[in-house]
């Protein structure tokens, strides 16, 4: 892991994300790109009426000063930090920055149980997830020494999630974490017998070319199953696949991915399918 992107809005939650990034960067000897997006829109920047270029320059300088103060933290000492300021919020740009700098992951902060809709302004984190080609880690609380020993990866064991699984395996390997794969078996039309479930899992692992232990966990819903299983093994992180621009709402079905992210007590990381 060489480069981590952390979008910040100077909130307490974005500092949680920055602290996690600092912990990972120190262990992985990685650089942190700290990204701040101004509220300016393109019309304000280019318009010759009612808004002057010097005002744009003033606001940019103000943002640079505030960002510099925000980054003046003891826990960042010794880590290479590169501040990046964008004129206005275009979330596709986050992925452009990631590609330009060959970034490995994005870390963002959340306000907790209110979930993605309360991250920054609107549903900005979900927008980043939709555009991002690299993993996005959502952090909801202060984790001074972020260490991943047990990492849960939950998916539907369909071929579409194979690429996400491979990324999760690589991520776990980089951090020296134990990967726990789980299949959530729920009542109703999706219920599988133990034999059928293992046949599905074995077929998936054969396609992945992986020898990986998988737990079949029974619960009333996929969301509850993922959260309860993760809690039962004291997981440090939950990983889920996402369909990119379709967002978290298309993980498994309905809004399960978003619900898991909103209600999880531990950080959640998404991997693009």
From TrEMBL:
<protein>
    <submittedName>
        <fullName>Universal stress protein</fullName>
    </submittedName>
</protein>
<dbReference type="InterPro" id="IPR006015">
    <property type="entry name" value="Universal_stress_UspA"/>
</dbReference>
<comment type="similarity">
    <text>Belongs to the universal stress protein A family.</text>
</comment>
<dbReference type="Pfam" id="PF00582">
    <property type="entry name" value="Usp"/>
</dbReference>
<feature type="domain" description="UspA">
    <location>
        <begin position="1"/>
        <end position="140"/>
    </location>
</feature>
<dbReference type="InterPro" id="IPR014729">
    <property type="entry name" value="Rossmann-like_a/b/a_fold"/>
</dbReference>
<dbReference type="InterPro" id="IPR006016">
    <property type="entry name" value="UspA"/>
</dbReference>
<feature type="domain" description="UspA">
    <location>
        <begin position="152"/>
        <end position="271"/>
    </location>
</feature>
């Amino acid at each position: 892991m060489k480069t981590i992107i952390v979008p910040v809005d100077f909130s307490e939650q974005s500092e949680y994300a920055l602290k996690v990034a600092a912990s990972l960067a120190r262990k992985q000897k990685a650089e942190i790109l700290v990204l701040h997006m101004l509220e300016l829109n393109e019309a304000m920047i280019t318009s010759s009426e009612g808004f002057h270029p010097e005002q744009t320059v003033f606001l940019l300088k103000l943002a640079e000063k505030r960002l510099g103060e925000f980054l003046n933290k003891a826990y960042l000492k010794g880590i290479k930090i590169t501040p990046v300021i964008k004129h206005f919020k275009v979330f596709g740009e986050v992925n452009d920055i990631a590609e330009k700098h060959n970034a490995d992951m994005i870390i963002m902060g959340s306000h907790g149980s209110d979930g993605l809709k309360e991250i920054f302004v609107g549903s900005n984190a979900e927008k980043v997830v939709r555009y991002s080609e690299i993993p996005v880690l959502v952090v909801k609380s202060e984790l001074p020494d972020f260490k991943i020993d047990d990492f849960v990866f939950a998916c539907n064991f369909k071929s579409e999630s194979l690429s996400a699984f491979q990324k999760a395996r690589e991520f776990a390997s980089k951090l020296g974490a134990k990967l726990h794969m789980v299949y959530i078996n729920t009542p109703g039309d999706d219920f599988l017998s133990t034999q059928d479930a293992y046949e599905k899992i074995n077929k998936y692992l054969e396609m992945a070319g992986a020898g990986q232990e998988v737990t079949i966990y029974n619960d009333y819903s996929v969301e509850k199953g993922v959260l309860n299983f993760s809690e039962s093994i004291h997981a440090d992180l939950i990983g889920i696949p996402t369909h990119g621009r379709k967002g978290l709402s298309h993980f498994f079905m309905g809004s399960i991915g978003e619900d898991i992210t909103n209600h999880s007590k531990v950080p959640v990381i998404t991997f693009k399918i």
